[in-house]
Amino acid sequence: MINSEILSKLQSASVEERIQIIEIILQSLKNDIGVSKKQSSSDLHSLKGKVTYYNDPYQPVASEDWEALT
Question: Do residues 46 and 39 touch, judged by C-beta distance below 8 A?
């Protein structure tokens, strides 16, 4: 939350100073968004390099559930 002292200082600031503050806030948000994207992309690759093997890879899966095959 913004305390009342900061808010009163913002209200008395010039337009140029307010624009500078907005630009600083936007840059901070862009940085935060970039960090969160990097974290999520690393989450996507969390299984990368893990050992993977398949037991009977060409064996049908749940074929008894298909009515057309009966």
Answer: no
